[in-house]
Amino acid sequence: MINWFCKKFDELSPYELYAILQLRNEVFVVEQNCPYQDADNKDQSSWHLMGWLDDKLVAYTRLLPLGVAYPEMPSIGRVVTSPSVRRSGIGKKLMEKSIEELYKLFGNTPIKIGAQLYLLKFYTSLGFQQTSDIYLEDNIEHVEMLKS
């Protein structure tokens, strides 16, 4: 069973922060072979949703207030699940929990995301609609999406 916690940056313990950075690096840098600057100065203004299985971080997103990623609405970013739990439905649960937490924090507002193109169908199943042409971010195809 996954235990969910949502914390502001300054509430994270050093252990939690290390686990977040480790999971993001494992997937975004190593698995996706995408060497980029993950520390983008947005973490400090964000809330961090963590899904723990026993003592291992297996699911994570950051919830960005209006004005941090996009000037007009809040966003969900750095969506990541551990390879050890993939194909178990945890990705969908992570996004459902992220949307729920974002609404609690910022009200029932539209949500804008930058989604990797290969996940378009996944995000569409959660109510997001594509709102941009394909663009490259860190050499990976992305599209902007909106959930009204």
Task: Indicate the topology.
Blueprint: E1 3-8, H1 14-31, E2 47-53, E3 56-64, E4 75-81, H2 90-106, E5 111-116, H3 120-125, E6 129-130, E7 135-137, E8 140-147
Antiparallel strand pairs: 1-2, 2-3, 3-4, 5-8, 6-8, 7-8
Low-pLDDT residue intervals, each spanning 5 or more residues: none
Residues in helix, %: 25-40%
- What is the fold named in CATH at topology level? Aminopeptidase
CATH superfamily: Gcn5-related N-acetyltransferase (GNAT)
| Inertia-based shape | globular
The CATH architecture is 3-Layer(aba) Sandwich
The total tally of domains equals 1
Trace the largest sheet across and list its strands.
1-2-3-4
Radius of gyration based on Cα positions: 14 Å
Q: Could you say which structural class the secondary elements and strand pairing correspond to?
A: alpha+beta
* First-last Cα distance: 30 Å
Biggest sheet overview: 4 strands, antiparallel
Please write the CATH class name.
Alpha Beta
Number of helices: 3
Percent in strands: 25-35%
On the 0-100 scale, what is the average pLDDT?
95
Annotation, overall tally of beta strands: 8
In N-to-C order, the SSE pattern is: EHEEEHEHEEE
